[in-house]
Amino acid sequence: MYVPSFADADGDGMGDLRGITDRLGHVAELGADAVWLTPFYPSPLADGGYDVADYRDVDPRHGTLGDFRALLDRARALGLRTIVDVVPNHTSDRHPWFAEALASAPGSAARDRYVFRDGTGPGGAEPPADWRSKFGGAAWTRVPDGQWYMHIFAAEQPDLNWENPDVAADFERTLRFWLDLGVDGFRIDVAHGLRKDLTPPLRNTRGADSVSLNAPPSGENHPFWDRDEVHDVYRTWRKVTDSYAPARIMVAEAGVSAARLPLYTRPDELHQAFNFFHLRCPWEAGAFRDVIDTSLAGAATTGSLPTWVLSNHDVVRHRSRYALPDGADIPGWLLTDGRSPAADGERGRRRARAAALLTLALPGTTYLYQGEELGLPEVADLPADALRDPMWERTGHALKGRDGCRVPLPWTRTGSSYGFGPGGSWLPQPDGWGERSVEAQTGRPGSFLELYRTALALRRGFRGDERFTWLPSAPGELAFRKGAGLVCRVNLSGAPIPLEPSSGSVPVTPLLASGELPGGTVLPPDTAVWLDARDGRPEGRSVS
Q: Angle CA(311)–CA(313)–CA(315) in degrees, nearest 5?
């Protein structure tokens, strides 16, 4: 859940905790096991709440600690676990520590909690190194006394110095604060960025960093991405979470290489790491096969299971990505307000539905981003004066940013914000948004919502056996079995594929398809089907 955009209870146009609590029934009925909340802490919202001013409280725009306790209670009553975001790489520039640092002299204890350095060149007028911000521009900002502070993201998000014991101790207090309240785990923002090589003189990167939030860092032994020392932090955190019962979980947002990702899920570190390779995979059978094989093999080295992700609050929604020509320049497409290249809406719809069944059939854990169960597309034509993402300004309007996937959800067909709240919405919702709403799709055969509800119900009947086997397949097809019973076939080619079992495959019973199966004998392009290879049928709903 992207908290500002899920549901608004008080009518100020900004999503809040009471709004989420009121709508948790939708999540439980969908068939989810847990909710992950993006930051709801006090924040100036320079970066959607990821600029945290107080890690152990609730922003008044989102509610109170009492509202959070009520959300936890409601989630438990519905059988849902609750995971919260923790943002350890940086604070807000409004955090008391940073205010103290600015008021203190260079070399002070207060400044040592952050990454402050003297500049280079005549009079120290140049940044300490050529490090680049993920939001565009330099990763350094100069303060009045002449020193520079580091920020991998916006200037309002100064990076913490994880070599300072005060920082480590304070985050342990933060973890325990929320664990004592009853949260079930943490999603760790920028998990690969905490430790830096701060040995003087700072090493330059030759400007190699791209402006891409979930892409692996470039080069080996990078001065601030994916350093070996970061794992010391998570070994300490694992001891904290292991001291609580029942079990708690930690999942990493780590944009690292496939070879390095398993290091974050070693038995004494984190439990899971997001799989952005699946998210970035082109619509091609061989590419998906490679990602699946690599992900399963990597997870097996640490005794964990992979995760699978199609969309999140940082990327263009996959329904729209799949609607674009293969290899399209997606940032460029956004700059044209989604007009060029032309999107094939029907292709995007078919592929998004097929991708859902492919993803939900794989072993491990699937993370769904709010609204994908409604088949929401990217809102690519948000006007410039409505944009809130700091990328827009920091890149000199070269990147439109992430607002298009953060437009508040439609719950009802009508209303000032289509049921998002009693008032308006902080980002404008497009005309016709109500026909994509929960109300409009509930009980409607063939809707995205009913596809997801059915798939998640059926999926429960196959849980527990996470073995994976590739099956014989046609060119351009993926065919595999999870465990002893769930068979998934996906046609990523441009031609229909017969549904009769291939040589060597097992007899199967159709359970669910992402689209029509002509005569029940053909799998059309951009379509997926689930089949039951067990004796008897699994518990849950099935559709013809």
A: 60
By CB atoms closer than 10 A (0-12, 13-18, 19+), residue 119 is middle
CB 410 within 8 A of CB 377: no
Kindly state the DSSP code that residue 304 receives in the 8-state scheme. Answer: -
* Dist. CA 100–CA 359, nearest whole Å: 47
Nearest one of 134, 320, 116 to 216, comparing CA atoms:
134
- From CA 140, how far away is CA 110, in angstroms rounded? 18
- Cα 537 to Cα 412: distance, rounded to the nearest angstrom: 35
pLDDT of residue 262: 97
Q: Are 109 and 167 in contact (CB under 8 A)?
A: no
Pull the structure tokens for residue 147. Answer: 């020193």
Assess whether pLDDT exceeds 50 at residue 418. yes
Q: What percentage of the chain's residues is helix, strand, coil (to nearest 5)? A: 30, 15, 55
- pLDDT, one tens digit per residue, over 261-304 is 999 999 999 999 999 999 999 999 999 999 999 999 999 999 99
User: Closest Cα to residue 269, out of 322, 353, 197, 191?
Assistant: 191
Sheet holding 486-491, edge to edge: 468-470, 477-482, 486-491, 527-532, 509-513
CA distance 113 to 379: 39
The secondary structure of 268-289, three-state, reads CCCCEECCHHHHCCCCCHHHHH
Structure confidence by residue, pLDDT tens digits, 212-243: 556 666 556 899 999 999 999 999 999 999 99
> What does the mean pLDDT of the chain come to?
94
The pair of structure tokens assigned to 443 is: 């009980």
